[in-house]
Every structure is written in C-alpha cells, then in structure tokens.
Design a protein that fits this description.
Layout: E1 8-12, E2 15-19, E3 23-29, E4 40-48, H1 51-54, E5 58-63, E6 66-74, E7 76-81, E8 86-90, E9 94-98, E10 103-109, E11 116-124, E12 135-139, E13 146-148, E14 154-159, E15 161-162, E16 167-168, E17 179-185, E18 190-194, E19 200-212, E20 217-220, E21 223-227, E22 232-249, E23 257-259, E24 262-264, H2 267-278
Antiparallel strand pairs: 1-21, 2-3, 3-4, 4-11, 5-10, 6-9, 6-11, 7-8, 7-10, 9-12, 13-14, 14-17, 15-16, 17-22, 18-22, 19-20, 19-21, 19-22, 23-24
Bound molecules: fe (iii) ion (FE).
Fe (iii) ion is lined by residues 58, 61, 63, 105, 107.
Length: 290
C-alpha cells in the first residue's frame, strides 16, 4: 500500500512576544491566532545576540498541568527548581520537565558572546495525569547521536522512533508519546519520515528555507508548518539549505482551561490552582522521584 504524504495545511509566521521578566521571543503556538495544536500548547523560539533581549530571563515561576521540552541551540540557560535541581544546559542539550501538580522553577539565559538560541515546547498532560508527581530531566547533547539519512539530511532523534524504528530518541516518559526529530538539510538534500496517522504533526523551521509536502510548499525561517493527516512527512532543502524540528504527538481531545503557566481542564481547577498558591499548598509535600 502506498504511503500518503502529509499535506501542508497552514504556514504560521511566529509573533513577537515579551515573556518572563522581559525576554523577547517568537511565539507560534499559544497565540490568539493559534491557541493550541492539540496536544501542543505553546511553542517559543528564542534567538538573540543582544543581551537586552534575554538577560532578564524567567525568574522563579510556577507551572501545573503540563510538560515542557527545551532545546538549547546556542548559549547557556541556568536552571533551578523546587525539586532541588540546579544546573546549566548549553548548546545541543535538551531539558524536559513534567510539572504535574506543581513545580516552581527559574530559567535564566546567561549572557554569552554567542547570545542565546533555542526552542521551548509545552505539551498538555491528560486529565488523569495533571496532578501527577513533578519530574525534571536533562540530557547532554553528547548523548544525542547525529545520523546521516539516505536523502542527505543529518538528524538527531530526540524522542520517539525514526528511520523505520532503527533510531530511538533518548527523551522518554512524556505522556503524549511525542516524536521529535531535529533535521538539518544541506542544499540539495531531502528528508522523509513516517509519523503515526492521526497524530498532530508540525515542523518548525528556524534556519533557511525548507519545502514540505506533496506541493513542495516553501517555509522561510522562522515558520511553523502544520500538516494534515497522512503517513509520511516529506521535506526538501531550499537553495541555501535549512533546519527544522519535526514534532508529532497523540492529540488528547480534552477540554483546555489555561491561565498563564497553568493548564487544566476546567475553570474550577484553575481557581483551585490559584487558591493552592495563596494558601501555600501548591508544592505538595510528598516523596519524590530522584
Ligand atoms: Fe517555565
């Protein structure tokens, strides 16, 4: 049976936003135009060599009901959280966190000559896991292997399976079973990857120009490319090459009630979250993993 190539249904130009204590970002999911792409709730792209754009960072703030994945491309981000983790993630590194019932953390880009660049994605948690135990993990870029493909692309599989199951990403334990593949396309190369039918799928182009789908729809960085259903994602490099993150995950089809860093299913659960913060019950006293 022939596999169908997923068509491009939307190309979204990210919107400039200022977040945290004054960090300038480009946001493509989690905007007025695109509230979410079930189960993806937010996609922020940070990239600047001007310290004024990023040095204020994201001082201590809470999260509930989500998971986050942060990919650092350039520079360094210092991190600390209410579970007691402290560290710095740098170029090529990945951090992923399950906020579950509640976590407090800070994410502080460090001023470096090369500036800062990277992506942060928020994934929704299914209703039954929203109040689960918080978890934090990170992974040095050295543990992520780069693989050349038949089409000439260089890929790093971050999560899920790729290359017909020959490659498995090290990021695991996320509720919506995402697939994340970092793809670099030198000029003249192509890329083809299977994604499960029915899974929400997008590509975020952060460098160059990449053409996607059966119509060879061009996407100029920065751009979010949303795919319709099908079996495979096909891409080819524009004249100067390009880079993108391919992401796919199982949609939850559950109601979403969001308020800043909290994403629950109902308004009452958001009210409860705010009450928990006021009364000092946000961080649960319980045995923790790690
Ligand atoms: Fe955060």
């Amino acid at each position: 049976m022939s596999q169908s190539s997923r068509p491009v249904v939307q190309v979204v130009t990210p919107e400039p936003v200022v977040e945290g204590a004054g960090v300038h970002l480009r946001r493509s999911i989690g905007t007025r135009g695109l509230d979410h792409l079930d189960p993806f709730l937010l996609l922020d792209h940070f990239e600047s060599v001007n310290p004024a754009d990023y040095e204020a960072g994201f001082p201590y703030h809470p999260h509930r009901g989500i998971e986050t994945v942060t990919i650092v491309r350039q520079g360094e981000v210092r991190h600390g959280d209410s579970l007691g983790h402290r560290g710095t993630i740098g170029a090529g590194d990945i951090q992923w966190m399950t906020s579950g019932s509640g976590i407090l953390h800070e994410e502080m880009p460090q001023v470096r000559a090369e500036g800062i660049a990277g992506l942060q994605l928020w994934l929704n948690l299914p209703a039954r896991e929203k109040m689960s135990r918080p978890k934090y993990r990170d992974l040095g870029g050295a543990q992520l292997t780069e693989t050349g493909t038949d089409g000439g692309a260089t890929i790093r599989v971050i999560a899920g399976e790729a290359g017909d199951g020959r490659l498995v990403g090290p990021v695991e334990g996320l509720a919506v079973a995402p697939k994340f593949v970092d793809v670099r396309l030198p000029p003249g190369t192509t890329f083809r990857e299977t994604v499960p039918r029915g899974h929400t799928t997008f590509a975020y182009v952060d460098q160059g120009v990449v053409r996607f789908g059966p119509e060879q729809t061009p996407a100029h960085a920065p751009a979010l490319v949303v795919f319709g259903d099908g079996d495979v994602v096909e891409a080819s490099a524009g004249p100067g090459g390009g880079r993108f993150l391919l992401a796919a995950a199982r949609p939850l089809h559950e109601p979403i009630a969001r308020y800043g860093p909290f994403v629950m299913n109902t308004r009452a659960e958001i009210e409860q979250t705010l009450a928990d913060l006021r009364t000092g019950n946000f961080i649960r006293r319980e045995p923790r993993d790690e």
